[in-house]
Amino acid sequence: MNTIIINGNTYSGNSVVVTNGKVLINGKDVTPDSKEININVQGNIGELKVDACNKVSVTGNANNVLTKSGDIYITGNVEGNIQTSSGDVDCGNVSGSISTSSGDVNHKR
């Protein structure tokens, strides 16, 4: 398993979901007390679905990535799609598509 760091607290898992202010890792609630949410994944990640956070960074590869708000930084490749409504995207190769309504995109082609 990889290491997932949420606001400085370390967890293990392969799925991160943030919805309605709740942070779930592999279905377990690990919601921090802080309103600000920063997600750092060290290793590959399967599901990454975030409605709002300040920053998502993955040191490794990811499958599909979906955010409504927050910048996305992925050092590796994305197997599927990246979609964000508001935020910058910086990543390696993307097998699918990248879309953002408001933000810059920087990726390898």
Structural class comes to mainly beta
The largest pleated sheet is described as: 7 strands, mixed
Beta-strand proportion: over 45%
Provide the low-confidence segments as ranges.
none
What does this protein structure show overall?
- The chain is mostly beta strands and 109 residues long.
- The mean pLDDT is 92.
- The relative contact order is 0.15.
- It has no helices and 14 strands.
- Helix content is 0%, strand content 55%.
Core attributes:
single chain, seven-stranded mixed sheet, 14 strands
Brief write-up:
Helix content is 0%, strand content 55%. By secondary structure, it is mainly β.
List strands and helices in order, with pairings.
Blueprint: E1 2-6, E2 9-13, E3 15-19, E4 22-25, E5 28-29, E6 38-42, E7 47-50, E8 55-59, E9 65-69, E10 71-74, E11 82-86, E12 89-91, E13 98-102, E14 105-107
Parallel strand pairs: 3-7, 6-8, 7-9, 8-10, 9-11, 10-12, 11-13, 12-14
Antiparallel strand pairs: 1-2, 1-6, 3-4, 4-5
